Amino acid sequence: MPGAGTGPPSVWVVVPCYNEARRLPLHEFESLLVRSDVAVLFVDDGSRDGTLELLRAFAGRFPRRAVVLPLAANRGKGEAVRAGMLHALAEGAAVVGYLDADLATPPEEVLRLLAALEAGGWRAVLGSRVRLLGSEIRRSALRHYRGRVFATAASLALDLPVYDTQCGAKLFRSCPALAQALASPFRARWAFDVELLGRLMAPARAEGLRAADIVEVPLLRWSDVRGSKLGSWQMLRAAGELLGVALRLRRARGRREKDRTGDGTLGAARPR
User: What is the Cα Rg of the chain in Å?
Assistant: First the structure.
């Protein structure tokens, strides 16, 4: 039965934090810890406002289940997530994912994603912010339409029919492709989700994930939280990063196709 074991946690949820002292709903993270196989790993990304002290106080109440990984200097959300996921894998995580510190995606939704991963045999589950009847997806019109433009471009870059690459709630099974995808720093600071998916789909050495290995699960609840660090300037920067990711993926696909066909002339007529 899920959560009934007494061994070390097998599911690690990484929460990147940067200057979150005023809006960090720490008590709500306790909802994730109802399962004894789940650990929450807070990565403090060089905060300067007392966030680290709050995290350590909270972690002290849940030994081995709430863990704090402090980074000496601010490295950006993508690198904070990568550091946390690498730490979790080193601790033996069978499943590792990440979640925004403001809990725009509530903990119960993360547990729904985990249930989907376990029940369906998926290798990756992505939360998706789709406004449907019966759901509560609260998002400003500006962010919604801006996000739709970005998501469409990301889908084209990945050559993957994904609806929402930027939802801050994702879970992955441990596998060689994931370890390889995390082995080197992300070049993208804000569009790292797209870069990560691209690396997973097309690793250089390990067997990569296929579209059939990944599922998007529409969230029942999600809401904008005041104080988001993703403003207009960051969105412009993310768009530039996405272009860079797309170009790198295109070059990588070209190299793999050339490797697959030898000198690129496989199938061409040979001189007699």
Answer: 19
> What average pLDDT score do residues 3-9 get?
66
Predicted confidence at residue 209, as pLDDT, reads 93
- Name the pLDDT band for 134 (thresholds 50, 70, 90): very high
State the Cα–Cα distance between residues 171 and 4, nearest whole angstrom.
Answer: 20
Task: Mark 93-111 as b/e (b = at least 16 C-beta within 10 Å).
Answer: bebbbbbbbbbbbbbebbb
pTM above 0.70, yes or no: yes
Tokens found for residue 123 = 């290798």
- The mean predicted confidence, pLDDT, of the chain is 88
Which residues have CB under 8 Å from 96's CB, separation 6+? Answer: 11, 12, 13, 14, 85, 88, 89, 171, 172, 174, 178
In this predicted model, what pLDDT tens digit does every residue of 159-193 receive, in sequence order? Answer: 899 999 999 999 999 999 999 999 999 998 888 99
Are 126 and 216 spatial neighbours (Cβ–Cβ below 8 Å)?
yes
**In Å, how far from its chain's centre is CA 27?**
22
Residue 239 has pLDDT above 60, yes or no: yes
Residue 141 CB partners (closer than 8 Å, separation 6+): none
Contact 118, 110 (CB under 8 A): no
Q: Angle 62-105-92 (CA atoms, 0-180°, nearest 5)?
A: 45
Domains of the chain: 11-255 (3.90.550.10)
Q: What is the distance between the alpha carbons of residues 135 and 225, in angstroms, rounded to a whole number?
A: 17
- Residue recorded with tokens 């569009």: 191
Per-residue pLDDT, 233: 62
Q: Counting Cβ atoms within 10 Å, is residue 177 exposed (0-12), middle (13-18) or buried (19+)?
A: buried
